[in-house]
Amino acid sequence: MANSPQARKRARQAVKRREHNISLRSKLRTAIKHVRKAIETGDKSGAQTIFNQTVSTVDSIADKGIIHKNKAARQKSRLSAAIKAMA
């Protein structure tokens, strides 16, 4: 347990930051799942619309440092390729 007042405050802040980061990461995963579900249904225009919204979510979370920028780029690339592969 933290002994100094400063260490106690930092521990409180760490808990708050962790909860916030977890919620953002969950939001990211949900957005990606929505795109994958749209791809499975076969609706290319709908999937593209949802993908465009997801791209902004992925970018904002990567900018905040929740995920690495390369991971964000990889996820966007794979989703885009899956949409393009739809006939």
From TrEMBL:
Keyword Disulfide bond: no
Official protein name in the record: Small ribosomal subunit protein bS20
GO CC annotation, single: small ribosomal subunit
PANTHER family hit by this protein: 30S RIBOSOMAL PROTEIN S20, SMALL RIBOSOMAL SUBUNIT PROTEIN BS20C
A Pfam short name: Ribosomal_S20p
SUPFAM superfamilies: Ribosomal protein S20
Molecular-function GO terms, alphabetical: small ribosomal subunit rRNA binding; structural constituent of ribosome
Keyword Lipoprotein set for record: no
Gene that this polypeptide is encoded by: rpsT
Its job: Binds directly to 16S ribosomal RNA.
UniProt-listed InterPro entries: Ribosomal_bS20, Ribosomal_bS20_sf
Origin superkingdom: Bacteria
Record keywords, A-Z: Ribonucleoprotein, Ribosomal protein, RNA-binding, rRNA-binding
GO annotation, biological process: translation
Family in the record: Belongs to the bacterial ribosomal protein bS20 family.
